[in-house]
Amino acid sequence: LAKITQPISMDSYEGQEVNITCSHNNIATNDYITWYQQFPSQGPRFIIQGYKTKVTNEVASLFIPADRKSSTLSLPRVSLSDTAVYYCLVGDGPQTGSSNTGKLIFGQGTTLQVKP
Amino acid sequence: GAVVSQHPSWVICKSGTSVKIECRSLDFQATTMFWYRQFPKQSLMLMATSNEGSKATYEQGVEKDKFLINHASLTLSTLTVTSAHPEDSSFYICSALKTVSGNTIYFGEGSWLTVV
After folding, report:
1. Statement: residue A97 has pLDDT above 70
2. Separation CA A90–CA A17 (nearest Å)
3. Which of B6, B46, B109 sits opposite A105 (nearest CB)?
4. pLDDT of residue A104
5. Lowest-confidence region among B10-14, B15-19, B28-32
6. In this complex, is the C-beta atom of A41 within 8 Å of any C-beta atom belonging to chain B?
7. How many CA atoms lie within 13 A of B45 on its CB side?
8. How far is the alpha carbon of B43 from chain A, nearest alpha carbon, in Å?
9. Which of A88, B21, B49, B109 has the maximum number of C-beta atoms within 10 A of its C-beta?
10. Which of B46, B49, B107 sits opposite A43 (nearest CB)?
11. Which tens digits make up the pLDDT trace of B68-111?
């Protein structure tokens, strides 16, 4: 399994862009990078997934450099409701794909606190 | 989107008793489900993989006789915490693997267990 390192916590203010970087030096060729969001007392929620370069959806962007040893989750113009724990996961195929076995190993996550 | 529901959302039980938590996939069949536990301010820890019609696969360090998993139908997996103790108090989360149009994971809302 890839060793994952991400900041334990981050603070931001409403309206700012937040970038959370995840380090995964020994990522395997077949590994995907996935980010989940978790609010207190709720199950994790899928945010975004990518393999290389840049992926963007309606809530976030994911930047992956060519060596894929790190990735950055970018949240544009955060609001108070974005206060949550963000998990970077590596491995196990795409979120939607035949190689996804569904088994997810979560790291420590990054607690993002958005202030008014 | 697909929905995975857990019941109960929270439960309080006395030490020494057993408590059952249900995980249902409401609009798809799931041959594979997963159970996680999460202590306050900690990450999710995978406990076991629940396989419909066969025995669950437990992660290292998880007592199979303590945490009984039954996956008797394609839409229901149950986790029974036997002879519960206060240290079993935790947030339990399930996920289900939908294998239509690619394999996609969906998480339940979680269940709080408090053992007194």
Report:
1. no
2. 24
3. B46
4. 82
5. B28-32
6. yes
7. 14
8. 5
9. A88
10. B107
11. 999 989 999 999 999 999 999 999 999 999 887 778 889 999 99
- The stretch A46-64 carries a mean pLDDT of 94
Q: Pull the structure tokens for residue A12.
A: 């931001």
The identity of residue A37, as a single letter, is Q
Q: Cβ B105–A97 below 8 Å, yes or no?
A: no
The predicted pLDDT at position A26 comes to 87
Q: Does B95 touch chain A (CB under 8 A)?
A: yes
Residues within 8 A of A (CB atoms), B 35-74 only: 36, 43-46, 49
Task: Match 């989107």 to its residue by tokens.
Answer: B1
Closest CA to B24 of B72, B101, B96: B96
Neighbouring CB atoms inside 10 A of B41's CB total 9
Tell me which residue in A97, A102, A109 faces B43 most closely, judged by beta carbons.
Answer: A109
